[in-house]
Amino acid sequence: MTQTGSRVGVWLIGARGAVATTAVVGASAMCAGLAEPTGCVTARAEFPDEHLPPLNTLVFGGHDLPGPALIERAQALVRDRALPAQLLEPCEKDLTAAEQEIREGYAGPMGGPRFTAGTSQAEVAGALAADIDDFRRRLGLARVVVVHVASTEPPVPPRAEHNDLEALERALPSVTDLLPPSSLYAYAALMAGCPYIDFTPSPGARLPALTALARRRELPLAGSDAKTGETLLQTALAPMFAARNLRVRAWSGTNLLGGGDGATLAAPGPAASKTLSKRRTLQQMVGDDIEGTVRIDCVPALGTWKTAWDHVAFDGFLGVRMSMQFTWQGCDCALAAPLVLDLARLTAAAHAAGLAGPLAPLAFFFKDPVDRPPADLADQYRDLRAFATALHAR
Asked: What's an example of a GO molecular-function annotation for this chain (predicted)?
């Protein structure tokens, strides 16, 4: 990819995962003219391109735990039919360059090869922030956007320090478990002067103390939990029932996932984070009193592919009972990766424009956006377009 001009860093937490790997391959392939920008919202004509960092100015790096290199992850995705085999050779140089910019991350208070048990979270955050700062300075980047695409974490028990920035910063030098890893990464990113994107439903920057830190340091935030499949359809279909004054009585969904995401969400804690995010969106659109559940089941044979089946029961005129069912089958990393690129470009432009705090117009991309903006997909898209136009006018 082009190495000149005002380049923007994209620092990926979970940098060797399927989503991160696909984002790097996708950016490389599009820059080389080997792939169309299908799935990239910012490639649509409604989004003025001149105010967004071009794809060929994005430089990738990130944090992850030791594991297979990016080229090996890409080869595995080819075997899983998630990446076209013909892209591996022409994109290998960019995968290797991104691999060289990956630093060992944080595994939690139990310690690991880099951070031993008992290391204070202030020390961990300082080391993580230094990695990002080194990336920015060494490569001469105009700015760096940090995107959390690592595994989903369980909900966190409330702590008083989560709501008070000063109390949080007083405590971090003497504690090892005050912040979950996603929130410690968010803290480190903000301390390094970088915008932060919560792509997963992990706590991340959603803690009030971290939102306050972002505003203090004049940094934008976006999130959380990108909608790529079932919830995307729900936010398009639920407004239809409301507009036609049809009463939704029940809405149940079953999600079958493979790969690392399926394995993570097989655990009750991470599954609780994901199902809460999904259900909250639906309830906002059709009401809290609807029946039904959301299930997530791990099916390893699916690999990086996923299937969602939904059943909707509703009342029509004169109380006649009716129903609708739909099935969504997709490749999770191929659905998510273009959104990572969109969010990195939009958030970088917001940072350049001096915006700070949660970026409500980016709700279009998320299941559980901050400040509870309208959940209707069409309304969110209108707000996103207006946001992009306003950035262009600055």
From this structure: inositol-3-phosphate synthase activity
